[in-house]
Amino acid sequence: MSAPSRGLSKSYSESKNWKISLTVIEGRDVAFPSERRKKDNRSLWLKIAFEDRELNSNILNDLKDVGKPHWNETFDFEIEGQDTEEDIGDLFIDLYDRSNGEDHFVAGIKMACKHIILDSQLSSKSVAKEGWYPLINYHEDKDRKCGDLHLRLAAIPPTGALTTPIMKIKPAINGIVNVYTPPGRCDMDFVFIHGINSNSQTWVNEDHTFYWPEEWLIQDFPSCRILFVDHATLTDGIDGLADRFLKQFISDGIGKKPYVLIGHSYGGLIIKKIVNESCRMESGVYTNLWGMIFLGTPRKASNLDLLVPDEKQKLKIELKDEDYLSKLDRDFRRAVRKHPRGGEEQPVGVVAPLICMESEEITRPGLPRIVAVPTSCAKPKVPGHHPPLAIFDADHIGLSRPSDRFCKMYQTFIGHLRNVLNAYARTWHHQMHPPPMEAPPTDASEYWKTPINVPTFKSSVNFQVESSS
Q1: Which has more pLDDT, 261 or 207?
Q2: Going by fewer Cβ within 10 Å, which terminus of the chain is more open, N or C?
């Protein structure tokens, strides 16, 4: 069998469609099945398949070091049709070994292309991801790794697409973006802080078509303000960013009314530091904090440093500093315990954070195939009641991107926010209408159970998160 000659799609200047461009640079530690392991002078080639099209690499003949093949070839595929939000197929890179005129499958890589296309649409420019990807013999044993390929995958928009993004992008301003302010009374602020190597696009929906807090939360909580905190280009570290944003919170009046902090990944670590420092200062940023949601936030050293580019060594070291992260978590637990609504007598859902955890590996182009923050690194130690926990069928990036308004992920978020708002409503009612002094409650927990007639904050679906055991 002979490999067909390699073909190329139209050039970028001639194309009216989006294009996927794959560059195969080299391989390392390529291993072969036992029955062919001792053969020398091998010839290797690649078959690249996307949807119903196939391209083949040049054949590397008479390799002396088959463990380190080098191609440096680029393969281009057009995505037919203009509607790239439709299902986009996967890209398959299969490695073949040719000996005695016969081709034998060695291993392959399956790459999802949808996310890089959507990221390119969001940013209105070409987007490229590069990294080492594991070769897996998925014809025989999915768990057996057969080496790695160094790949670069790029999404290239058609002519004219660079000025027509599919949605309005929040500007990276390294500060606070006011996303929504209620036209009338404002009951509470929801403050979102993104993680590393990211920006406000952390809070887009799964299809990358809109910001779900701006689209959905204002329907479920129309009397609450929504704020995004952006630190896309800052390199101040956890302490520096927390200090910067704590000062901005105070100057912008965040903490003068009840508020909730929602943090994804590294953003959750910034939240912990803000809580610790505001506790020490005894400011309104601390006392008016009513709830927190952590999405994929590590309590100790995890795999999160593997998502950080090599040039950001200071950040990588910080994320692996077990002593620093442990102290940050201890101080946070102490601050929660000291909080007016953080002791054991308080109901679940007030101050004690909702912990959301991922269960899947990242399989996106240019990123390592890892569970960035395993459950063992995210499950917290908090005083008093056990905090509500939720594990989702999502990777680290997808943990902040619910698919629709009725999915489990989004309903978990608003279920917790509804609990916080109802607790605030009950507290406000008891402050305005305290129970009779001649019949005081036996303890604080009974006080919270006192029947009252106050309006409750409801969402579209009544979803309750189970507490951890």
Answers
A1: 261
A2: C
